[in-house]
Design a protein that fits this description.
By secondary structure, this protein is of the alpha/beta class. The chain has 12 helices and 7 strands. The protein has a 5-stranded parallel β-sheet with strand order 2-1-3-4-5, with helices on both faces. Strands 6-7 form a two-stranded antiparallel ribbon. The chain starts with a helix and ends in a 9-residue tail after the last helix.
Amino acid sequence: MVTVDQMNQLSDLELDIYNYIISHRHEVIHMKLKDLSTDLHVSSSMITRVAKKLGYEGFLEWKAEMKLDQEDKPIQNKRALNYILDYFNRVDNKEFDDLIHQAAEIIVNSHEVICSGIGLSDAIAKFAASLFNRKGKRTMYSGDFSSRFRGMYDQNDCALFFTVSGETREIIDRIKDLKKYDIKIIVITNSASSTAAKMSDLALTYYMPSTKNGDFYSSATQVPVLYIIESIANLFIEYGIY
């Protein structure tokens, strides 16, 4: 089973290869490595490298596992559902649980919690703040990126940023600003290689295929993000918050 740590080792190109194979798994299991490399316009060795980074001996072993998995499950007609099912398979392990516990511990031990995002992630930030408050942890939603926090927060507080790309200028600037005051930063984003993730104290990633329209807005399903938020909130009671 592919783990979060293994996904974090993939480059952007390798992640594209992984996402293609997952979304076309029903065709890929009948393909030769050479034919797949032709379709992807990458070398066979590149695909093999991705397979090895995911813990397989090579493409053949990866393909064999996908074939066995397909025999146990009905064929899904929608590729988007394949991505979501793959995500839940990836996070069904102790590694993911440990990351969620780390995030929950930072949040419950913080005096103040701030949730921020832009665009669709702004709505997600509002949801997170509302849920955390409902679960007993005082949390503030901040959608005004012109506001200043000097003198208001310190090392006893934390901020959660929701960003698909992890490259939004306003998010990056806000993280830089808050880090001046030693505020702990948690970033929930699509890739560990993003700037926001690298700047954070803790990054929770989900690796869903994202698209950009003509205005360069990143878009990816937010089902994993909602799951991450609820998983964190459900742990508050373990820390005496309810």
